[in-house]
Amino acid sequence: MHLNNNVTEFILLGLTQDPLKKKFVFAIFLVFYLGTLVGNLLIITTIKTSRTLESSPMYFFLFYLSLSDTCFSTSIAPRMIVDALLKTATISFSECIIQVFSLHYFGCLEIFILIIMAADRYVAICKPLHYTTIMNHRVCSILVAVAWVGSCVHSLAQIFLALSLPFCGPNVIDHYLCDLQPLLKLACADTHMVNLLLVSNSGAICTVSFVILMFSYVIILHSLRNHSAEGRRKALSTCVSHIIVVIMFFVPCIFIYTRPATTLSMDKMITVFYTIGTPLFNPLIYTLRNVEVKNAMKKLWSKNLISDDKK
Question: pTM to 2 decimals?
Answer without folding.
Answer: 0.88
